[in-house]
Amino acid sequence: MIRRGGGRAPPVILIGLLVMLVILGFNYWLLSSQNADLQQELEKLQAEVKISAVKQDQSEKKNAALQETVHEMDEIADKLKKRVQEEEDAIKNRDQDGQKKDYEITSLKNKIVVLQEQINTVKQQVEEQEVELAKAKETNTRLVTERDAAVEAVGEKDTQINSLKIQLEQVGESRHD
């Protein structure tokens, strides 16, 4: 194209350039606004990432503390379970000892009953022996009395015999004289 008018650009080109400049300015302003918005959003997201990182760090610390607490609680629970088991074993042993003692008590009660029966039998025998002893004492007393009477009678008879012997000797001496 040939230029007319001596070095000036045709008005259409100027208008086209102006329109392009306006469009470029508008696009620059639009992109600049979007860039500023995106920059703010990026800063917000970075702040949220930092907050999330801090929260995650705090959560990890809390989690570690909770894990430690859980570990300690597990140890305590294990100790308590062991202690409960020991107590249950002790109770079982006491129950078994109690059953043994109950058996021994029952056995001893049975022995007591048997011994009581034996004592009653022996008491009856003693009473019977006492009755027999009383009868024997009565018989002995009677026999002693009879013996004493017999001894006395024999003594009297001896006395009579001696008297008769003396009399007989006296009679015999008087006949010999």
TrEMBL record:
Membrane topology: Single-pass type II membrane protein
Coiled coil stretches, renumbered: 28-146
GO cellular component, one term: membrane
InterPro entries per the UniProt record, alphabetical: GOLM1/CASC4 (IPR026139)
UniProt keyword list: Coiled coil, Membrane, Signal-anchor, Transmembrane, Transmembrane helix
Subcellular localization: Membrane
Entry's transmembrane regions: 12-31
Highest taxon above the source species: Eukaryota
Family assignment from sequence similarity: Belongs to the GOLM family.
Protein name: Protein casc4
